[in-house]
Amino acid sequence: MHRRDFIKYSAAFGAFSALPLWSRAALAADRPALPVPELLLPDARNTVRLTAQAGKTVFGGKMATTWGYNGSLLGPALRLTQGESVTVDIHNSLAEETTVHWHGLEVPGDVDGGPQGVIAAGGRRTVKFTPQQRAATCWFHPHQHGKTGHQVAMGLAGLVLIEDIESRKLMLPKQWGIDDIPLIIQDKRFGADGEIDYKLDVMSAAVGWFGDMLLCNGVNYPQHANPRGWLRLRLLNGCNARSLNIAASDNRPLYVIASDGGLLAEPVKVTELPLLMGERFEVLVDTSDGKPFDIVTLPVKQMGMTVAPFDQPQPIVRIQPVRIASSGELPDKLVEVPALPALDGLTERWLQLMMDPMLDMMGMQALMKKYGDKAMAGMSMGGHGNMGGHGGMKHGGMDHGKMNHGQMGQGFDFHNANKINGKAFDMATPAFAAQKGKYEKWTISGEGDMMLHPFHIHGTQFRILSENGQPVAAHRQGWKDTVRVEGARSEVLVRFDHEASKEHAYMAHCHLLEHEDTGMMLGFTVA
């Protein structure tokens, strides 16, 4: 940071800290204050220590068992610097195995933390890597096969902030926890005993696990006091299965400055920002008018996610500007994003996402039995026409009206019912080998299946060529690690700059976590 910037930011921080206690208390009188994850930097030996641990957290007045990194729920924000090596010592103090996956980081397969990187209960793992990629907001979470959904639902998730020279030169809001705040958005469901009510069953294997309470940084509808001016929001959809549609309650514009893999070429003005599971976007919002407003998620058209209260806009966080002025700016230009290379002569791969028709039918029946027609997001079980070609409604010529739910369930293995190219995940057998440093064009198809599949690829930040059969929206033309697939084809341009062996293959999978846990994932090597 330049000296003049340091002085300016320090002055603003000092003014904020000098607010009288009664003023700060008044801001939080009706709503809890937004918790901000600790900013964790490597120590003098370039080492960071993480402990996956169990704890207790209060939700709705009841105490629940939760899991977190270095705490009871969620985790810190690791701040790393491009080109600087870091060693991460991970201790698993949980009573079961876990892994730590560096989602969005371009690191070798042996430190990526996929399902092969198991850390035994009570065990430890040390990984060392040097981030070479652009400044970005990434995250880390478990990737234990068959249990990823459960472990994330219990609270295991943290942020990774990568900085580089270009990002430091920009006069973006940079005061962590003041005008630069992360919003980790998740939904949860709790049982009558107050505990997190997670089940991997036929219904969740089909549509995903979803909740009826929305949390931001682990708290229901908190508020944040920020200096008037530009406020930077680092958005993460940390939900297991729920897509979001972010907006301001008063319809003020959001200026998208970064996507999964880093800064865009220039800000993109939007009033609504769809956010898939696992995706990150950074936005700037102008609060110089001093008026309070909410960041909300608008209703989405996704199977299972239209159940109340999510049939109405839901508040995520209350933004309450205070009198002092902020110092960050919205630049006209951000960074250079290279033009797409020529696509001639590239290796091309086809990945067909498929759900077992039996799972599809059983999952839909279970969803309707529990929540009624409102859960179907405008789609009908009765006729194929209304389903828009839903995979499970068409395959095999089944007479759905004559099916008996109980008989269908006998002996059905839903744990391997979601597939890519006709195969459920097999950790021992990578699907293909990619060549290091060479561009490839991947087509991911959800044709014949109308379920939402946010598709994530490890070890790379790619460029989207087309998304779900449509041209790429302006704010999605930068670096991405997740692409939307929903009943159509998406094309991405990928390149892997690190190696991944058979023993430590990269993963490509649906980031609806229950789809991933029940087979919609494959491994691949890079050499």
Summarize the structure.
With 527 residues, the protein is mostly beta strands.
Question: What keywords describe this structure?
Answer:
disordered N terminus, 30 strands, single chain, six-stranded mixed sheet, 14% helix, 10 helices, mainly beta, 527 residues
What features would you describe in this structure?
By secondary structure, the chain is mainly beta. Helices cover 14% and strands 34% of the residues. The protein contains ten helices and 30 strands. It has helices at residues 3-17, 21-27, 148-153, 165-169, 202-207, 357-371, 384-387, 391-394, 405-409, 513-517, and strands at 39-40, 47-59, 62-69, 77-81, 86-92, 101-103, 124-129, 136-141, 158-163, 180-188, 213-216, 223-228, 230-237, 244-248, 254-259, 262-270, 273-275, 280-286, 293-297, 314-325, 347-355, 418-420, 432-434, 440-445, 453-457, 463-466, 482-485, 489-494, 506-510, 521-526. The strands form six sheets. The chain has a six-stranded mixed β-sheet, with no helix packed on it. The longest helix is centred in the N-terminal third of the chain and has 15 residues, at 3-17.
Global morphology: globular
Q: Could you tell me the strand content as a percent range?
A: 25-35%
Regarding quaternary structure, what we see is single chain
**SSE class:** mainly beta
**Roughly how many Å apart are the termini?**
38 Å
Residues in helices, as a percent range: 10-25%
Q: Low-confidence spans: pLDDT under 50, at least 5 residues? A: 1-23, 381-409
> Mind describing the biggest β-sheet?
6 strands, mixed
Walk across the major sheet and give the strand order: 11-10-13-18-15-16
Q: Can you give the mean pLDDT?
A: 90
SS elements, strand count: 30
Structural Rg: 22 Å
